[in-house]
Amino acid sequence: MAVNYATVTWDQLHRDARALAEALMPKMPIKGIVAVTRGGLIPAAIAARELGCRLIETISVVTYDEENMGKPQIIKEPVAAGDGEGFLIIDDLVDSGVTARVVREKLPKAFFACLYAKPAGKELTDLFITEVPQDTWVLFPWDTAPLFVPPLAKSKKSTVD
């Protein structure tokens, strides 16, 4: 099966993170936010600003060794969050649900929110902004770099006559 790509720009990410924060307003007041590193760091920072939250904790779960899926391991515990009561968990994407499952087991009383969710993992979230097809690879702004594209007049063969 061919893999599709969806590119998320900085502007789109910011709009989606603000939409997530707006949807989380009914959960206020909260004790804090737990960002799932690394992808959840930027959405969590934006949501924290919008929600007026100063306490941001992190949890780091490693599931890949190079490119191979391995057994998930928590390499940084969210100590300040306890069992998650009164905390929001924020991530960029829930894909297969492997990381989300580990985070949920660690913080069973937290509310789990993410920007994007794929079908295989969306049941593990309490809230997400956009559903993404399972065969789509999401390219976040930190995964890409702008490249120079020469003007058509400078290319060897112009398709415009």
From TrEMBL:
Alphabetical list of SUPFAM superfamilies matching this protein: PRTase-like (SSF53271)
Supply one GO BP term: GMP salvage
Q: Does the keyword Transferase apply?
A: yes
Q: Name one GO molecular function term.
A: hypoxanthine phosphoribosyltransferase activity
Q: GO CC terms on record? A: cytosol
Q: Which UniProt keywords apply?
A: Cell membrane, Glycosyltransferase, Magnesium, Membrane, Metal-binding, Purine salvage, Transferase
The name this protein carries in UniProt is Xanthine phosphoribosyltransferase
